[in-house]
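Sanity check

After download, print the first record. It should look like this:
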Amino acid sequence: MAEVLARWPAAPPGARFSPIARFSSAGAGGGLVQVSGRAPGRSRLGAAGGPVEGRRVYAIGDVHGCYDLLIALLQRLGDDAAAAGPRATTLILLGDYVDRGPDSARVVEALCLLKSQAPFEVCLLKGNHEDALLRFLDAPSDGGPWLAFGGAATLALYGVDPPDPEDGLAAYATARDELLRRMPAAHLRLLQTLDLMAVVGDFAFVHAGVAPGEPLRGQSERDLLWIRREFLEARGPFEKVIVHGHTWDGDRPAVTPARIGLDTGAYETGVLSAMRFEDEERVWLAVRDGRGGRPPLDEVRSWVPAKPLDFTAAGAGFRVLSLA
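Expected C-alpha cells:
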C-alpha cells in the first residue's frame, strides 16, 4: 500500500483537513446524522452535475473482493492526480467491498491501511453486503440470505467453513463465532464505522441510491443500501446528482441527468471503475484484468463527457480521452 500511495502527489498545506459533509445512521430514531464537515450546500435542482469547486474527488464503484483490481485502480488514480497537480483531494469508495470476488479479506485490509496512511481524505461508504455481514454477526440464524449471495466466499477467505443449512441454526452461530475469532479487530472496526452518504458540491455519493421524493437528510439506511428499481426508474431530479454503485448492467458507468452509476460488475466483467470530479469536469477511469482476451490490468482507459454536463443518455456523451 505504501508503494501505491507514493504515486499520489503531496497535498497542499491543510488539504487533508478540508471538510466534506459525511453522514452516518441515526439509529432506531431514523434519519441521518452529520458526523463531520459542513452541511450540504443549496443544490441546483435539475443540474446534470454542477462543479466540484476547490477540491478533486475520486469515487470508486463496487470492489467485491477484487483486490488486484483495487490496487491497480489506486495506482492509476495516483498517476492521474500527479499529472493534474497537487490539490485538496477526497477519495470516496461506494461500498460492497466484500463477497463474490476472490479476496475480500485483503480488500478490507487494504482499506484499513488506506484510512491510516493516505495523504488525502478517505470516505468509505457502507454497502448492502457490509450491512448483511454485520447483521450475520448480530443474528447468525438470519444469515442464510447473506451466505447465498456471497457471504460463503467471505467466510472461506477468513478461514471459516461456511455452515451447512442441514446442520441447523447452531452451525450458523458456530460460523459467526469462528469469524469473530479470525477477523482482525481493525477489520471489524472499519466495517462498523462506515459512512452512509457523502455530499460534495452538487453531488451526493451513496451506495445503492435514494428514495424518490425524500430529502437527503430523511433517507432511510435501508434505502441508501438496498434500493434498486424505484430509484433506477425515477427520472429525477433529486436534491443532488446521485453517484452510486450497487447495480450494474455492463462494463461502463450508467449516466443520466439525475444519477451516475459506477458499479461495472468487477467480479464478473473484470472492470473496476472510478470517476474524477473536479470543477466542471467528470473523467471516467477504469482498470480491467485481461479476462476473455481483453487487454490486461496495465492498460487503462479514461473517458470524459464529449460536452461538459452532457449526460443525456446512459453511456452516451463519453469519448475516449487516452490509453495508458
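If your output differs, re-run the checksum step. Summary of this record's structure: Residues 38-48, 297-324 have pLDDT under 50 and may be disordered.
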